Queue: 2 jobs
Job 1
Amino acid sequence: MGGCGLKGLVWIVGAGPGDPDLITVKGLRLLSEAHLVVYAGSLINRELLHRCPEGCEVLDSSKMTLAEQVRVMADRALKGLNVVRLHTGDPSLYGAIGEQIRELKALGVECRIVPGVSSLQGAAAALGIEYTVPGGTQTLVCTRLPGRTPVPSKEDLRVYASTGATLALFLSSDMGDEISRLCMEGGLPGDTPAAWVYRATWPDQRVGTAKLRELGQRMKAEHVNRQALIIVGRCVEESGTSLLYDPRFSHMYRKAHDEGPEGGMG
Ligand code: SAH
């Protein structure tokens, strides 16, 4: 597949956040050549599945145990068939791919990963913002609140809030109140801007902003308690002014007019 025709190979493909046009060209090609596709039921846009060839076996992973998924993928891959495991967004964020890769490897099956557009990028596009703020924070933290999956105690949200970095919260859509409380305990002012993006890049995408102290209340009023990314930080309101286009700032494509301050490439 993809010109390599290797036996015993599974492609882990990032499907993008929702809009089916946001899968990569490579991901789409692999999908169009697949004999078996296992996809994450709740968050993958089914329109993508129309790109599978006729006769392709298509299985919803949400109805299967990990062992069942691994068994069927390994079986087809070892027969030399083209196998795609489709993950929402980018597989590197909360994708739980490690266990699949390990178990497939134990059966003699290698995995290769095709990156995807994460809901992280989908949400920034929906909000029209830049997470890193010229002249402001240069850091983005991707995290979540503990749910059934614990979060290490050293990664308490208060610790990150205390830095003033942009915070992107996955898997925490129903915990707006808790996010406000912890961020404020960490030292962020209650009027810090925050936003949520529900189903970024889907046709029913919804976006809202609130002061940090009102985040939970506002999300409840808008009935947003799932499939949302929450962003906390000044980036929601401020875009800053980049040094990149400052005439005093030189970079590899342009010479400075004057001696400029240090900066970064966008
Ligand atoms: N690998 C995925 C994240 C999987 S975890 C990615 O890169 O996007 C699932 C969480 O991701 C959800 O609880 C939600 O917080 C976020 N998420 C996934 N798709 C989303 C979308 N289209 N819009 C907003 N948030 C989304």
Job 2
Amino acid sequence: MMPEIDLDYIPNHVAIIMDGNGRWAKQHGKERSYGHQVGVESVRVIAEEAARLGVKFLTLYTFSTENWNRPEEEVSALMGLLMDSIEDEIFLKNNISFRIIGDTTKLPAKVLERLNSCIESTAGNTGMCLVLALSYSSRWEITEAATQIAKMVEQGKLSVDGINEQTFATYLSTNFMPDPDLLIRTGGEVRLSNYLLWQCAYSELYFCDIFWPDFRKEAFYEAIHNYQKRERRFGKISEQVN
Ligand code: IPE
Ligand code: IPE
Ligand code: MG
């Protein structure tokens, strides 16, 4: 049964750690890469559903900095899949704009070219923004921000007194988005794996055992339903937030 959700309280920003493709494939007696292929279909379903529900930002952990350490054939299979799955059509059909965050200099030139072309052709779309975290890790991002800030101070363009949480956040690659309201991790592991550490300071965390290729509409609704039952207090007491 489809869990009931309140359309007036949809999380603005949903971040997802899409995990479990390899184990799903193994369970089905297939190569890991098959799990990644079917996982792409989950991305399509969830992106369309999120856009339809009115989610403004959907940030998907697609490839971490640490994932570069996987066997070469898996890395190249993932890059190939990325190249083949980025189609402008689904973005245009659903009025979705496309962005990427991460150390994209590490990506193969052809892949980056394809991604950039999609970013350009969807830039005018006014619906949901779909963000892929690629070659991304939080510690990389925070270190980059600190380095940039140090350079600005060195060049006299920023004063030390001008550094606060708000200004710091403008140096992060997520500076165009609000913090995630809901972070979902599929695949059963209960960890953040270097994802959006700064940004998830006050996000609601939701972990589920379903492997990413099986994570479809009903599971997504369940996550949102669960989110909607929670009381976000941000350090205050219940009486203050009600
Ligand atoms: C998530 O699935 C996709 C990526 C990390 C690229 P995994 O490939 O990590 O699958 P498991 O966790 O090994 O099952
Ligand atoms: C996290 O999954 C990265 C992505 C989903 C892209 P991993 O499978 O790489 O995470 P760990 O290594 O099990 O923590
Ligand atoms: Mg994994």
